[in-house]
Amino acid sequence: MRKKIVAGNWKMNKNYAEGIELAKEVSNLVGNKTFHCEIILGTPFIHLAEAVKVVNSQKISVAAQNCANKPSGAYTGEVSAEMIKSTGASHVIIGHSERRAYYAETYQTLKEKVDLALQNNLIPIFCIGEKLSERETSIHFDIVKAQIQESLFHLSEENFGRIVLAYEPVWAIGTGVTATPDQAQEMHFFIRNVISDKYGKGIADVTTILYGGSCNPSNAKELFSNPDVDGGLIGGASLKADDFLKIVDAF
Ligand code: 13P
Q1: Coil, strand or helix: which one is 132?
Q2: pLDDT-based confidence at 14, cuts 50/70/90?
Q3: What are phi and psi of 40, to 5 degrees?
Q4: pLDDT at residue 149, rounded to an integer
Q5: Which of 47, 181, 209, 242 has the largest CB neighbor count within 10 A?
Q6: d(Cα 67, Cα 114) in Å, to the nearest integer?
Q7: How far apart are CA 242 and CA 244, in angstroms?
Q8: Residues 144, 129: contact at Cβ < 8 Å?
Q9: Atom 1 of ligand 1 has which residue's CA nearest to it?
Q10: Is the C-beta atom of 173 inside 6 A of ligand 1?
């Protein structure tokens, strides 16, 4: 059985006090309840160390939203995978479409980030997804396949097995437009086949593939009921503890 995950991506929201408050609220709502998925909070860097302390670590993990593509040194403003690991965070989101678009992240830099994350025992949540124009011209499958191939297919079987993927169609992010359950399933199934062709069915079957893009309490259940959708990467709806918990509870 592959892991089911609901992960929040707070993006660049919440000042220090607000973020720690949100982490506490989520942890309180989770309480001692048992959910059928892992819960991860993807916070800005400034919250990581304290968020790790205030949440119930048996129930909630903490993720960074990016890491540097260099191990250390004179890279002003960057935060390394090793630094992230030292906060107690366990995961790092890599390759989000906003970073690809606004910070010119390339296949190569993402490959370097994935390697550094793995070397530092962080689990990469690696994001892939096509733009609207790419779907409209029917090259969405090719785009997603290239994103996987170019940044991940250098990995050994063992290391690939440590990656979590998140399919986030760019046209669905923050737009209120969600991929239909059929569109999500179709792409997730395709992604699993791409993995299977390279690493074999065994690895493909245990790779967790999350869906992201306007996922909310009212559509989560239907999206997650697809056989190849193993959870969600949640933006806007992860900023409200109640909504986030409803999505977690959708499993
Ligand atoms: P929204 O849920 O706000 O559409 O964002 C999705 C996302 O980008 C998660 O990484």
Answers
A1: helix
A2: very high
A3: -130, 140
A4: 98
A5: 47
A6: 9
A7: 5
A8: yes
A9: 235
A10: yes
Using DSSP, state whether 1 is helix, strand or coil. Answer: coil
Question: Can you give the pTM of this predicted structure?
Answer: 0.98
- Can you give the three-state secondary structure of 4-61, one letter per residue? CEEEEECCCCCCHHHHHHHHHHHHHHHCCCCCCCEEEEECCHHHHHHHHHHCCCCCEE
Cα–Cα distance, 118 to 251 (Å, whole number): 28
The residues that are catalytic are 96, 168
Ligand 1 neighbourhood includes 235 CB (under 6 angstroms): yes
Residue written as token pair 């437009």: 177
Map residue 248 onto helix, strand or coil. Answer: helix
CA dihedral 133, 185, 95, 148 (to 10 degrees): -90
95 within ligand 1 shell (Cβ under 6 A): no
Whether residue 82 contacts residue 71, with contact meaning beta carbons closer than 8 Å, is answered with yes
> Do residues 207 and 165 make contact, with C-beta atoms less than 8 angstroms apart?
yes
Helix (H, G, I), strand (E, B) or coil at 161: coil
Rg (CA), the chain: 17
Q: Using the predicted structure, report yes or no on whether residue 251 has a pLDDT greater than 90.
A: no
